[in-house]
Here is the input.
Amino acid sequence: MKLFVFDHCPFCIKAMMVAGLKKIDLELVYLQNHDIEARIEKVGANLVPILQKPDGSYMAESLDIAAYLDNADGHPALGASTHTDNIAAWSEATRPYGSLLLFPRWLRIDLPEFQCQEAKDWFYSKKSAMIDESFEQAFDNSANYIEKLNKVLGQLDWLTLPSERGDKLTYDDVNLFPTLRNYTVIKGLVFPSRVRQYIDEVAMLTGIPLYDDVAV
Ligand SMILES: N[C@@H](CCC(=O)N[C@@H](CS)C(=O)NCC(=O)O)C(=O)O
Here is the structure.
């Protein structure tokens, strides 16, 4: 099977987490960010992740792909969500600062979906319109946004560690971890120790690489 992704895409990480957890033999294919046609020709819409199943057919929607991969061996491992509202509220609270901090950084590190100028230019024009700031301005304002994001990171008091539940993951982890994983690219962001432990434990169980070594 093939999974078409961007490395920085949190939805793609949802599908990749399950593939890693279940040790599914999956080829990751990184599409160039501007190559909309490569997405539309497969699923009729401009989005990743896209799974190509063994019969050659394509499947979109990260949570559908996650469920498909989890059920592929007839022994689903993921538990049900119990913190859907908490995760939705927390994600909403972090999104503005997360975008301002993440978007400029994705072009400052070496990512497989930005291997040509066209891909970088496409991302820049689309996303700087979304944050209403140039990437340069947003990056220069990092200290301010980091302070705000640090506060929201303290609002994860309901979080339980995988090690406190027999290393069993749930759809809450699939929905929460990708955002936290992306925040590891933000140099100077201080994760509360329990949140940091959560990130490290889920990364270990799913084999998802973090960005600490290349953080900017
Ligand atoms: N509901 C979709 C959302 C996927 C999505 O929004 N993917 C973004 C990347 S994070 C995308 O492909 N956007 C198109 C683009 O960047 O051109 C899912 O859960 O898979």
